[in-house]
Amino acid sequence: MPTEPTPRVLVTPAAEATIDLLRDEHGPLMFHQSGGCCDGSSPMCFAKGEFRVGTNDVWLGQIHGCDFFMSASQFEYWKHTQLTVDVVKGRGASFSLEIPLGVRFLIRSRLFTKEEEEHMAPVYDGEEYLTR
């Protein structure tokens, strides 16, 4: 019996509810896991297409119907880690769409098990993603 690929990124029900609110206001959404100095390492939510992805970005999958990307260099550090997007009260220091709601997305993470790593979901660089 075929095994489902191990997802690289998950989302909590609370984050799904926030995504629903944002999608109602902004339409289709996308995420990019930031690694910058100004916004720490927060998952950033944008209107789909507002953040331009390319060969320096990696598509990790979808959360609640939204594509999720991170920089290729950051992926090298996090490729053995399953990410879960969550939301907490508080104001983040970023340009992410949830900030006016008084909440911010954050990442919870854990290392994959050896068994999970044997069945990983594929990743695509930004250019491959756009042509698949």
From TrEMBL:
It comes from the Bacteria. It holds the Pfam family DUF779. This is DUF779 domain-containing protein. It comes from Hymenobacter rigui.
